[in-house]
Write the structure tokens for this entry.
Amino acid sequence: MPSSPDKMRLGVVGVGNMGGSLIHGLIDSGCAATGIHAVDLREEALAPLAERGVKTSTELVDAVDGCDLVVLGLKPQFADSVLVSLGNLIANQILLSVMAGVTTATIEARIGGDVVVVRAMPQTVVRLQAGATAVCAGSRARVNDVAIVRRLFDRVGSTVEVTEVQMDAVTGLSGSGPAYVYTVIEALADGGVKVGLARDVALRLAAQTVAGAARMVLGTDKHPAALRDEVTSPGGTTIAGLSALEEEGLRHALISAVEAATIRSREIGQAGRDK
């Protein structure tokens, strides 16, 4: 199997928000569209990918034949029948799942045989090469298999490797995290409108502020609390705003959101195992 994503032949089963975003991000990062095979039952999901040169089909076999790595971009509730069918098709390929809450053990049991399974939890922002993706290995995956998957996702952001038991927490934090941040951006913009800014101006300022703050955290070795202290003057505007956030419980709300999403991910996984 080629070690470089540029030379890898990729099959993607399910090209909705996640699968489609991954394909667009890989193409924009320089991967050849002609090396990607997209399979979905919905022609409307396949059409924009075909326009970019991706090979598209409604037949599952086309995501396997001639491909080095097969990505499962399905919603968990639709996985069972596809996994059974894949068990009769897949041979030496790596099976990469981006399904929330579905463990590698569940996938291995459904598909049968000695298929190598790797699980990843990316985000739709992989489309902009800005994703944060966590990866874990199934029972038959080797170090090199995980390395291949990480190189793929490094093309569309950055990756970390975690254990399987940590994947529900990853889902709760970074998998669902963009939705939390979108809500924060919307709320900041609403605040700007409330104090007199035009909606478009407030939204642009809010979004760029979040993006810039994130870059500071990633681009320095400083803890977010230290960076916050640097812009918080005694008796100034920022400390007044921070005090209001503490009174309204923003920190607790975000912690609770991660916890609730983690619990839900576990529930989805348990439902799959109980079938």
